[in-house]
Amino acid sequence: MDDIASMPIREIAVFLPGSDRPRIASTVEDIMGILMANEWWKKPNDTGWQHALATCFRALQGEQDASKARVAFVNVARDAGFKVLPDDERKSRSRATAAKTQKSGEWRSHVR
User: Fold this and answer.
1) Do the beta carbons of residue 54 and residue 85 sit within 8 Å?
2) Could you report the per-residue pLDDT of 35-54, keeping only the tens digit for each?
3) Is the full-model pTM beyond 0.90?
4) Which of 8, 23, 38, 70 is deepest in the core (most CB within 10 A)?
């Protein structure tokens, strides 16, 4: 098995409560550290959090791709209300582009 630290992911930053700086993750090990952080709001029987952590363990054991651990982490972070960059930034840009396209389409329909 590869060293844990060598399980790279596409880098992400998550803003946890009580911190003015984001936590940066570039490996599966980093994701696990963030999930286990005291600042992370864990509720008893939080199945999303448990799934993300289990997905990280499976990735480290070579049973799943590291990108699946990243996706599970991003999903649970969003569910917890945390901002995740660059994913949320891209999502915002996509919504803004869609809204612009819709508005320009509406404008054109009124001109005809």
Assistant:
1) no
2) 998 888 777 789 999 999 99
3) no
4) 70
Of 6, 14, 7, which Cα lies nearest the Cα of 75? 14
Distance between CA 99 and CA 79 in Å, rounded?
A: 24
Which residues are 12's β-sheet partners? Answer: 25
Output the CA torsion 18→25→58→36 (10° steps): -20
Q: In this structure, which long-range contacts are made by residues 95-104, counting pairs with CB atoms below 8 Å and at least 24 apart in sequence? A: none
**Which residues, listed in sequence order, are joined to residue 83 by a DSSP beta bridge?**
15
Distance in angstroms (rounded) separating the CA atoms of residues 69 and 27: 10
Where are the chain's structural domains? 4-86
